[in-house]
Write a structure and sequence with these properties.
The chain is an alpha/beta fold and 201 residues long. The chain is built from seven helices and four strands; from the N terminus they run H-H-H-H-E-H-E-E-H-E-H. This is NAD-dependent DNA ligase.
Length: 201
């Protein structure tokens, strides 16, 4: 019993130190408002060294994302914006440690709609447990649907599970506010959480 307790406390201490290090690292990388491929590779090395000993889901998720970004050897503008937004969230200590954001904080459609894919138009925003946005969009295409930027023709806006409590101030918050406004005006757009979307795949 004592040994289990000390192991758990020791593990908690390691996790806490890792998160503090990651916050410092994120703050440094995001300080100039830009992130280079070399900096992403540096972040990847740190995450690789820590992912194996970490109990924090957020470290493993971020490691997975960084690997996906570097997979094709190109840091495109969409990947750059998403990663910078995530690092800024860490810098401000504004994140949930692997926990899905409480749905009450987001203007999700209530009741949540039944989702279909063939011929329907989707838009994705935020950071996804499912994978990079291009994988989410591919899942829609595989089912006969379409996806792209937010417009008044968008039927479903899907919000990634790792949105933070300050989503209104994040780079993807504008899309959520705009979609909610259009919905209030009577446009047929639904706003759903990633978990709801995944349940229909």
């Amino acid at each position: 019993m004592d040994e289990k307790f000390y192991n758990r406390v020791g593990g908690d201490r390691i996790s806490s130190r890792q998160i503090d290090e990651l916050i410092g690292l994120a703050r440094g990388l995001a300080a100039d408002g830009a992130i280079t491929k070399t900096e992403v590779e540096f972040l990847q090395k740190w995450l690789a060294a820590n992912a194996e000993i970490s109990a924090q889901p957020i470290i493993r998720i971020l490691y997975q994302r960084v690997n996906e970004i570097l997979e094709d050897g190109v840091l495109d503008s969409d990947e750059h914006a998403q990663l910078l937004d995530t690092l800024n969230s860490f810098s401000n200590r504004d994140f949930e440690l692997g926990e899905v954001l409480k749905p009450t904080s987001l203007p999700l459609s209530d009741p949540a709609p039944t989702l279909t894919f063939a011929g329907r138009l989707y838009c994705f925003t935020g950071t996804f447990n499912f994978g990079q946005r291009k994988y989410c969009e591919q899942a829609i295409a595989d089912r006969g649907g379409f996806s792209g930027g937010l417009s008044q023709k968008t039927e479903f806006l899907v919000i990634g599970a790792y949105a933070t409590e300050s989503w209104k101030h994040s780079s993807f918050g504008d899309k959520i506010v705009k979609a909610a406004g259009w919905r209030d005006q009577g446009l047929p757009i639904s706003i759903v959480a990633e978990s709801h979307w995944v349940s229909f795949l």
